[in-house]
Amino acid sequence: MSKTKFIFVTGGVTSSLGKGIISSSIAKLLVARGFSVTIQKLDPYINIDPGTLNPYEHGECFVTEDGAETDLDLGHYERFSNVPTSQANNVTTGVIYQSVITKERQGEYLGETVQVIPHITDEIKYRIKLLANRGEYDFIITEIGGTVGDIESLPFIEAVRQMRWELGSDCVVVHLTLIPYLAAAGELKTKPTQHSVKTLLESGVQPDIIVCRTEKHLSEGIRNKIALFCNVSPSSVIESIDAESIYDVPILMREENLDLEILKKTNMPYDQDPDLTDWEQFLYALKHPSCEVNIGLVGKYVELKDAYKSINESFIHAGTSNGVKVRVQTFHSEFLDDSNVAEKLGKLDGILVAPGFGERGIEGKIAAIKFARENKIPFFGICLGMQCAVIEFGRNVLGLKGAHSTEFNKATPYPVIDMMEMQKKISGLGGTMRLGSYPCKLVRDSKVFPFYNQENINERHRHRFEFNNDYLETYTNAGMKPVGVNQKDNLVEIIELENHPWFVGVQFHPEYKSTVARPHPLFVNFVKAAKDYADK
Ligand code: GLN
């Protein structure tokens, strides 16, 4: 195969146009043509990673196999392309500066004045090429966070300019902009796009392809106008019309020949069409569900649509594979208690208690779990959700009054959830949790075993606290069983309840591993249980 090609995706006019979805769609189309592809996100903020960011800032923090806490766009990359990402796939300004400053302190620059150009831009280029150095990929797609013209993204755009100059046709720049529709004038307007391309040009970058986000179809005339004013051929003006689902976008981009334009510009073969049969089947199933199930998502960031992104997407995958539409209703755990759970959660077919940190809303989660347990409603607890299930069981079944996690009450008489030994010595925040993929051994004689149908599984983690093994026997004897255990550190990873149709708590995050091609077995079976419950 020829050498790696680089695709840069920049954004203009406004944020939230869907660069991540366009990048993921490009990846999907190239993978469907048999190319090997990876996607990387460059984020212009100064945090080292989004791990310490409040979900209100940037939504969910996505975790990779190798334990990187990353931008949620990496979740889209994996869900679309089915290719796992890694630490190297998300680079922030913070990472770039940290490594340049470290090198400076170690004398690596031999007395030079350390500057944005070339030192920062070289470091950015190094991080982009790092993925290519692995020799595994035909294409590296690099999404530049933010909007062109932002002060923060200037060094990244400059790195793109330099790479284009160095690489010629091994490199292509895709610019995503907005074509707003002015209802009063009854017209689509190209001016903001012209301006954003001019802004890119001021930094020396001529986009090769312009993807136009729009709510109305682009006429031939509009396409020609954009081509003329932005120095691209009309075939390089790609319409990205608002879609019913993000999963429609690869098909729409295929119809617009976005993949073909990229292949032509990078001198790559395009004699074979992408094989999208599976994707089309998925889309058909997504749009033709046989019935609906109602699942309650109990968490404390429910007002924020991106905070539980991967969980919501996992429900789409799992619903589709069950032929049902999963309607996810959110419930703010701060406003739930024993007196109102029946009224609020009574009509649901399944209850999922979300991951999280901090004490706010914990008692509401516990009330929701008690309700699900007592009324035999399918229950799925993820990370903090599992920990709350353990606390609930301790307090209400085992009679351990005041049982708690030491995350919330250090003086609890029954610390049924406690900090992991390995976490006790750690002081700083950021990348210090138990992160990424760890093995887990399933008990053959368990309800979850057939879901996976294998004894040894690997799942991704992001936590500091853990089931306290001092209570293992008491819990097991009373019917809350550890059915998945990390053998090396003896950590309980999965609990399930006897005498309940579906009550599973997992210390890991299955939502990070669900993709269109491979819906996560726990979500698939949870939705199935919810459907059975609804049928009854
Ligand atoms: N706060 C809990 C812990 O650190 C749960 C974390 C989570 O839900 N991701 O263990």
Content of β-strand? 15-25%
Strand order in the sheet with the most strands = 13-12-14-15-23-22-21-18-19
Average residue-wise pLDDT: 94
The helix content, as a percent range, equals: 25-40%
Q: Specify the biggest β-sheet.
A: 9 strands, mixed
Write a brief caption for the model.
The protein is an alpha/beta fold.
Tags for this model:
536 residues, alpha/beta, seven-stranded parallel sheet, binds glutamine
Structural commentary:
With 536 residues, the chain is an alpha/beta fold. 37% of the residues lie in helices and 23% in strands. The strands form 5 sheets. Strands 13-12-14-15-23-22-21-18-19 form a 9-stranded mixed beta sheet, with helices on both faces. A 7-stranded parallel beta sheet has the order 5-2-6-1-7-10-11, with helices on both faces. A hairpin with a 4-residue loop joins strand 8 (181-182) and strand 9 (187-188). Helix 11 (277-287) crosses helix 12. The longest helix is centred in the first third of the chain and has 18 residues, at 116-133. It binds glutamine.
How do the helices and strands line up, and which of them pair or pack?
Blueprint: E1 5-11, H1 19-32, E2 37-43, H2 55-58, E3 62-63, E4 69-70, H3 73-81, E5 90-92, H4 93-105, H5 116-133, E6 139-144, H6 154-167, E7 171-178, E8 181-182, E9 187-188, H7 191-202, E10 209-214, H8 220-230, E11 237-241, H9 249-255, H10 258-265, H11 277-287, E12 291-299, H12 309-322, E13 324-332, H13 341-345, E14 350-353, H14 362-374, E15 379-382, H15 384-396, E16 404-405, E17 415-419, H16 421-424, E18 434-442, H17 449-452, E19 456-463, E20 465-467, H18 472-478, E21 480-486, E22 491-497, E23 503-506, H19 521-535
Parallel strand pairs: 1-6, 1-7, 2-5, 2-6, 7-10, 10-11, 12-13, 12-14, 14-15, 15-23, 16-17
Antiparallel strand pairs: 3-4, 8-9, 17-20, 18-19, 18-21, 21-22, 22-23
Helix pairs in contact: 1-3, 1-9, 4-5, 5-6, 11-12, 12-19, 14-15
The structure holds glutamine.
Glutamine binds next to strand 19.
